[in-house]
Design goal:
alpha+beta; 7-stranded antiparallel β-sheet; 6 helices; elongated
Length: 210
């Protein structure tokens, strides 16, 4: 089961989720979306908490209010960390999580330590934790089907964008050709002959200019 929370610290509200137990955390590590950001208490056992970022958000510019929500939720769901002040919460992109066969259930490392950020939590803030817990929804998630559906949707969006870009390029090319034709020396100075006008001989042309 996966626990979902809604953070109203930002507008539009953000989705936060975490595994109900360490077994579920294994699936969350495996199936994390590209736009998911993972949070955990540094050097202590805790829940694995994720933000599902909206398209307009980047992981290195997460609003401080949303970071605080995630950090407080992680702290509140750490047996040891919940009792301590001045904790450090680490976070990174879900794609930076590394799992090898010799690791214990729920254990994880990173592909790059340089992509791990930290946020300081002085103490537990009950108003934040209570606000988030009021939005908690527990769901059974088919991670594999969700992954397939996400990829299909992303591919459809990419195709739509590619088709639109192709259409724009074709229109630009057509406009460039029309502009080129309008600027053509031949077209600017071409005089359309009257088919009914009499044809002048060479001598007639000379006389016409005398």
């Amino acid at each position: 089961m996966v626990l979902f929370f809604t953070s109203t610290a930002v507008d539009p509200p953000a989705t936060i989720y975490m595994g109900k137990d360490k077994v579920e955390n294994e699936d969350l590590i495996r199936y994390a979306w590209p736009q998911d950001v993972w949070f955990h208490v540094d050097k202590l056992s805790s829940a694995h908490v994720y933000i599902r970022m909206p398209p307009t958000m980047t992981w290195d510019a997460i609003p401080q209010a949303l970071l605080n929500d995630c950090a407080q939720l992680v702290k509140a769901n750490s047996i040891e960390g919940n009792k301590k002040d001045n904790l450090t919460i680490i976070y990174t992109l879900g794609s930076n999580l590394k799992k090898s066969g010799d690791m214990a259930v729920g254990q994880v490392s990173f592909h790059s330590d340089k992509l791990v950020k930290r946020v300081h939590v002085p103490k537990r803030e009950n108003p934040i934790v209570n606000r988030l817990n009021k939005t908690k929804v527990e769901k059974e998630v088919d991670h594999e089907q969700e992954r397939v559906d996400r990829i299909k949707k992303e591919n459809a969006e990419k195709r739509a964008i590619a088709a639109q870009n192709k259409k724009v390029e074709a229109e630009l090319a057509k406009a460039r050709e029309a502009d080129k034709a309008a600027r053509s020396y031949d077209l600017l100075f071409e005089v359309e002959e009257d088919p009914d006008a009499p044809k002048l001989t060479g001598k007639a042309i000379e006389e016409d200019f005398m």
